[in-house]
Amino acid sequence: MSKFGDRMGHPLISIVIASRNAASTLQQCLDSIICQRFQDWEIVIMDGASEDSTLDLLRERGAWINYWQSAKDQGICQAWNKALNHVSGQWILFLGADDYLWSADTLERIVPYLRSACPRNRIIYGNVAVINSKAEVISMLGGPWPNLKRRMRRTMALPHQGVFHHKTLFRSYGAFDETFKIMGDYEFLSRFIWDHPPKYMPDITVAAWRQGGISMQIMNIATVASERLRVRQRQNTWRGAPVLPFVYAEEFARLSTRLLLGERAMRRVQRLYHSVVD
Q1: Contact 161, 178 (CB under 8 A)
Q2: Helix or strand or coil: residue 100?
Q3: Are β-strands 123-131 and 137-141 bridged in parallel, bridged antiparallel, or unpaired?
Q4: Partners of 131 in beta bridges
Q5: What gap in Å lies between CA 40 and CA 111, rounded to an integer?
Q6: How many other CB atoms are found less than 10 A from the CB of residue 1?
Q7: Contact (CB, 8 A) for 77 and 180
Q8: How far is it, in rounded angstroms, from Cα 116 to Cα 2?
Q9: Which sequence spans correspond to the domains of the chain?
Q10: What per-residue confidence (pLDDT) applies to 212?
Q11: pLDDT tier, 62 (very low <50, low <70, confident <90, very high otherwise)
């Protein structure tokens, strides 16, 4: 469903939101965009056939949404790929329906980085605040690329809600691999990021990410582990011969530590672990 008219034309930033039964959080996500001081953006929403009041909210906010549709899909990568057919911005940010932009001046502060980046840099990223159910900041994700590069060879180290993708990446490297159900962002970035390092915005928190997403659920450990292994095998980012049980155990330890001890403790354990095995 398109809104009437064309308020933005070809904006600088396209914000893609994938949703399903997200009425409890989507309003905050949308309002965090609508209130931005910098207004040269568009919103594209792919809803996975929500059965709650999500569609009512989309209709209410329709004047601010450039395109939305609601239909069954095969997962978040398919939703993102469908959205790519409707974006017109130079830079694309992918948010979940339970994420939101950090402050009213977030995009305004990011714009100078975006306007000076391409063609030298086609991935720009900032920090992401991990929050709990009380909106308290548990930890901050992000950091200079040299610090994240080693972890990126094992798993998704960039804070996805803080990553801006230049539109030319999808022409050069294709769309998201829809056989990935959780780690599609990691697979996509791993196609080119080693030869085209991203640029870090050290002073900017882009978005808030509520703890407890799909990659944080115990029942998805096997999926996350197997998809991480597929990326590492495909991109030859593992020294030696990786085996699924090892990757599964690594993923289980990561998630268990986070759930039992909290995000900060998990990060400390991760740093200790990588200092030993890397």
Answers
A1: no
A2: strand
A3: antiparallel
A4: 137, 210
A5: 10
A6: 12
A7: yes
A8: 31
A9: 13-211
A10: 59
A11: very high
Contact 47, 70 (CB under 8 A): yes
Distances in whole angstroms, Cα of residue 19 to Cα of each of 111, 221, 225: 26, 22, 24
HSE-up of 149 (CA within 13 Å, CB side)? 13
Please answer whether residues 197 and 120 qualify as being in contact, where contact means their C-beta atoms are separated by less than 8 angstroms: no
pLDDT in tens, 201-240: 999 999 999 875 554 555 567 777 788 888 887 776 544 4
What pLDDT sits at residue 1?
A: 46
**CA-based max dimension of the chain:** 57
- List, for residues 122-149, the tens digit of each pLDDT value: 999 999 999 988 889 988 999 999 999 9
Residue reference for tokens 């672990």: 273
- The mean pLDDT value of the chain amounts to 84
Residues facing 68 on adjacent strands: 45
Distance CA 276, CA 174 (A): 36
What is the C-alpha separation between 205 and 141, in angstroms, rounded? 9
26 vs 58: CA distance, rounded Å: 9
Q: Which fold has domain 13-211?
A: Spore Coat Polysaccharide Biosynthesis Protein SpsA; Chain A (3.90.550)
- Joined tokens for residue 157: 């180290």
- Count CB atoms within 10 A of the CB of residue 84: 17
256 within 8 A of 213, measured Cβ to Cβ: no
| Entry pTM | 0.84
For residue 25, the number of C-alpha atoms closer than 13 Å in the C-beta half-sphere is 20
